[in-house]
């Protein structure tokens, strides 16, 4: 190789799936989808209801989470946001952490935390029950079918 030629990139020698390329592509697609989902969420919660932000209370959230459409909307937003954020943090860790073992441990910690939050958030959205634990002195007592 002469002084005026450029060496091939290290990644060109590897065969198989290019995870960095797919991560980069995911960030772009999920970013666009998140903008749509977040603005839809904000418009439906703050602009459309009568009273704006003052209309948001427990009953408002319970009513929205009773609808399968809004459940899936929120879960999609949750999943995309956590994976998007974890992938961004992974990129930062890969760029700035020098030690291979520390870098691997931090990346694992990021993905475990994101996975745990995704599982817990999904469980909350799909198992939310506004009547759970309602007592006769609660304002929800009359509106809960088991009361």
TrEMBL record:
It comes from the Bacteria. Keywords: Heme, Iron, Membrane, Metal-binding, Transmembrane, Transmembrane helix. It is found in: Membrane. The keyword Transmembrane helix applies. One of its GO terms (cellular component) is membrane. It holds the Pfam family Sdh_cyt. InterPro entries: SQR/QFR_C/D, SuccDH_FuR_B_TM-su. Gene3D superfamilies: Fumarate reductase/succinate dehydrogenase, transmembrane subunit (1.20.1300.10). CDD domains: SQR_TypeA_SdhD_like. One of its GO terms (molecular function) is metal ion binding. Signal peptide: none annotated. This is Succinate dehydrogenase. It comes from Microbacterium sediminis.
